[in-house]
Amino acid sequence: MLFVMVTLLSASCIAAQPAGMLIDRVVAVVGREAIYHSDLVQRIEQARSQGAPADLGTSCGELEDLLYEKLLLEQARIDSVVVEEAQVNGELDRRIRYFASQLGGEKKLEEFYGKSVAEIKADFRKQVEEQLLVQSMQQKITADVRLTPKDVERFYRSIPEDSIPLINAEVEYAMILKLPKPSEDEDRRVRRRMEEYRDAIVKGTKDFCTVAILYSEDPGSAKDCGQLGLVPQGVMVPEFDAVALSLKEGEVSQVFKTQYGWHFMQLIERRGEQYNARHVLMRPQVNATDLQLARLVLDSLVRGIRAGTIEMGAAAQELSDDEESKGLDGVMIEPSSNSARWDMSALDQQTFFVLDKLKPGEVSDPQLVIMPDGTKAYRILRLILRSEPHRANLKDDYRLISQAAEGKARAAAVDAWVGERLAGTYIRLSPEHNNCPFEHDWAKLRTDR
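Given the sequence above, the corresponding structure tokens read:
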């Protein structure tokens, strides 16, 4: 995972090369979309880090994937396909949460990149938007693919018996998470302190930069006098954007609250829908009593669920602090497959050991967990289903087999679409790639161009 994150940064490092040095070159053009040597190198290195051989097949295969993505992106522009800003923001938030969980919290993530979360989001924004455009085009191309149960059965029967995949042990489970909340007295204490700092800055008895460096709890910006850098509207939480866009340049806001704590900010500049501001953040602190209250709430829920007087799904919707699962009755979704089925080997160690001791239908005692930002919380887990390792079959694994059958049908539809689009799209490859063994004829020289 660290390798993937490093390669995502490597493109920004190119700009730091000395003037006059050849830093990059175009290796292919699809319509108006260019593929750079650095793009291809990153993809090849990532493939090799995951076990791909260092040979011509890997290099050409990664280039063909890039050609395909650029063809989709070019067609998306032609068809005026757009992705909503909220969708881009949601995907950025999801990736930040994932990267932060891998590194041990947002503070570690900011240290790894040497940037604030806002700056990281701004760097990734165009890349994420293009990836979502590519996904939208793929969905548009395959929108008419429909399979009946008979089609799925025919696909399954066509698989040689010795090639039917082995399915590992899988589980489905639900969770209720309780994040301890600071007391009202602590919340008021932090707000008063922030108002004192803000008033002192406005009166000129304290310097904004000094207050940010000494007291702000935003590690990504505190060292830079609280400055966030130029960020597009939508990167920050809505409350933050709303305050920033209501200020005049140089003006200091009132103290306001977001999910991260109490803030005040000063607008430095605005450029269209982008702005640069500096802020101070302080978070009300959770103490041992607050943490114990979260546990007591879950203790009571566990007793009710076990006694049959409380239904866990309803309790999750009403009480869980996990935004992604509460709307699904607490059911946890495996992100790579977007399915409720989890391969046991893909579970984190703590979740594995809790679920391994449960029988289907049973609910665990409250468990202390460390959140991605380093804070503590309590959760309960309920095992919904467990399957043993087995060869895939239509009865137990219809969903997986159906997905595989649909995948094959969608791939065929995409192949047909690519073949059609190649005839009408300008494509140019650098000479060293003209002899790649592509699946599609990207390198064919056309006399009509």
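The first helix runs from residue 2 to 14. Try to locate this feature in the token string yourself.
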